[in-house]
Write a structure and sequence with these properties.
This protein is 44% helix and 14% strand. With 190 residues, the chain is α/β, with parallel strands linked by helices. It has a 4-stranded parallel sheet with strand order 1-2-3-4, with helices on both faces. The longest helix has 25 residues. The relative contact order is 0.15.
């Protein structure tokens, strides 16, 4: 990898997403790798979710994934890599996580469908679904986190570098034959 940068945008705003892609192309001349980790989570029982909570989750987790993947489909150079983040919660839902898991599943399916559309350009599109990982985005109650750690064969909370290593593999030359997959990076909980 020669150079990398992060570009921040409100992924729910199509114009901001397009501007971030414009900035990247202006800086590098082309885009070889797109990683979409944009997300929001609300952890509450479904009956307690407000319309505003739901609309925010849809705006970022559904429309945001769509906006980034649609721009990536047009702007990623042939032979490039696209990685969409999801969550292990789409395969193993937990109480209080239904809105997060439900909205993240849309991005998963957008990406997996896109992998079939971009294959002829040798662009791989994959999904990474982390398990319970020690980040600022972990909003579950501590007792539930402990329960999930207890169910994880590796017996610990995931760390950001555990997930980063999977990303690096998927975007590397060595990951060139992996396409249309949802990698469950979760310590074996499923």
């Amino acid at each position: 990898m020669e150079a990398a940068s992060t570009f921040h945008a409100d992924v729910s705003d199509r114009d901001q997403v397009a501007a971030a892609f414009d900035e990247a192309i202006g800086l590098y001349g082309k885009i070889d790798i797109v990683i979409n980790a944009g997300a929001t989570s609300t952890f509450a029982p479904l009956e307690a979710i407000t319309t505003d909570d739901l609309e925010k989750a849809i705006a970022i987790n559904v429309r945001g994934a769509f906006n980034v993947l649609q721009e990536a489909a047009v702007r990623t150079a042939d032979g490039g890599r696209i990685v969409q983040f999801s969550t292990g919660g789409t395969k193993m839902p937990v109480a209080g996580g239904s809105v997060y898991s439900g909205t993240k599943s849309a991005g998963e399916n957008f990406a997996l469908g896109l992998s079939k559309e971009l294959g002829s350009r040798q662009i791989t599109v994959n999904v990474i679904s982390p398990g319970v990982t020690d980040t600022d985005g972990l909003v579950m109650p501590e007792e539930q986190v402990k329960m999930l750690i207890g169910q994880t064969p590796l017996g610990r909370l995931g760390q950001p570098e555990d997930i980063a290593d999977v990303v690096m593999f998927l975007v590397s030359h060595e990951g060139r034959w992996i396409n249309g997959q949802n990698i469950q990076a979760n310590g074996g909980i499923l």
